[in-house]
Design a protein that fits this description.
With 163 residues, this protein is an all-beta fold. The chain is 0% helix and 64% strand. The chain starts with 17 loop residues before the first strand and ends in a 5-residue tail after the last strand. The structure holds protoporphyrin IX containing FE.
Length: 163
Amino acid sequence: MSGPELHPDVADLGFLLGSWSGGGTGRYPTIDTFSYGEEVVFAHVGKPFVSYAQRTWSVPERRPLHSETGYLRMAGPGRPELVLAQPSGVVEVHTGTLTDAVVSLSAVLVGRTPTAKEVTAVERVLRVDGDVLSYRVRMAAVGQPLQDHLEGQLHRTGVRLGT
Ligand code: HEM
């Protein structure tokens, strides 16, 4: 069964659609460097947004680590927006640019519940080359200046256009 057509407002994000799997490396001055596995799904329902769901686990123990879920929108050609919620009590609101298959985002708002760790800035860059998605996440958190937290690479495991 074929799903709805991708909404024209988010047609330029079509290269993201599908299921992705892989992993990455995390680091921060305050913690030990770690490896993680990761699954991501970008999907759509024919409305002007692309949904994003991610989960990660420790390697090799497969202990659940971070997860996050949100939506990508387009404010206009080449102008992506992202809203994102995390179970750690952090929400991110980003604006950015889309050039070719590179999405560069910078948080205009980082919101935290009263018990969340202090995160004050987040930058995300995500690029797709065929069926390979690589990304970097930088953050300013727990008193440290903006710097790398994550670097990951995912491979497209399937195209799933609906939810
Ligand atoms: C692939 C996604 C991610 C993974 C696998 C991951 C994993 C981890 C791990 C294993 C730690 C150290 C243990 C811990 O405190 O729980 C950590 C710490 C932390 N992470 Fe992440 N993280 C991810 C994404 C994020 C994002 C997107 C943010 C913020 C926007 C974030 C913010 C933090 C903070 C604030 C700490 C605590 C640093 C400290 O207390 O010294 N993480 N992360």
